[in-house]
Design goal:
33% of the residues lie in helices and 14% in strands. The protein is globular and about 60 Å long. The chain has a five-stranded antiparallel beta sheet, with helices on both faces. It has two domains: 48 residues, no CATH class; 102 residues, no CATH class. The protein is of the alpha+beta class and 186 residues long.
Length: 186
């Protein structure tokens, strides 16, 4: 039996996967550059470098490409809470979850960023207004790209709580650090 023809999105995902593999191999050989091309770069190396820069990640507000003066927040995972659209496994209403967490419901929703304290010892959740940033993270994480957002502005942070609030979508780095292998947070 022959395999069905891939859909256009499947075909594009396969091309993206293969292109990413090419950049990984170039990096392993030690000549890949995400910055400017060295003078001695061959036309093939210049093309692969351009490919790597394009594949680095999908850009989104708060991805750090423009906000270079704010350090990244290393996330284990995140979730988005919105009126009428709650994460899988949450049986409470948006309003009930907001009340339990301790924030006022907002029409735009809230993002929960699960991370660690400055020493990396204590689990904390930042409740932030950066919903669009979090959705940009999800687009990257779904493709295995371990990108993190920049530290939110103080005005974007509603509160910080001890412990992780779940369920969450794990970042690629978070899966490795916690050893969860994609299992739901406890």
């Amino acid at each position: 039996m022959t395999a069905p023809e891939p859909t256009e999105p499947d075909h594009l995902r396969e091309i993206e996967r293969l292109a990413h593999r090419v950049t990984l191999e170039a990096s392993a050989e030690g000549w890949l550059s995400h910055r400017g091309d060295p003078e001695e770069a061959t036309p093939l190396q210049r093309s692969v470098n351009a490919l790597a820069r394009a594949l680095r990640h999908y850009h989104f507000e708060g991805d750090g490409c423009l906000e270079e003066d704010r350090p990244p927040v290393r996330l284990v995972g995140a979730s988005v809470l919105k009126p009428g659209v709650m994460p899988a496994g949450v049986d409470e209403s948006y309003e009930a979850v907001c009340a339990r967490i301790g924030v006022e419901p907002r029409e735009e929703g809230w993002a929960l960023w699960n991370t660690w304290d400055r020493d990396g010892d204590v689990r904390v959740t930042m409740v932030v207004s950066a919903v669009a940033t979090t959705e940009g993270l999800f687009a990257n994480w779904a493709r295995g790209r371990a990108v993190d957002p920049v530290t939110p502005l103080p005005s974007q942070v509603a509160l910080v709580r001890h412990g992780w609030i779940g369920p969450m979508t794990f970042s690629p780095r978070g899966v490795g650090r916690t050893g969860r292998g994609g299992l739901p947070a406890a």
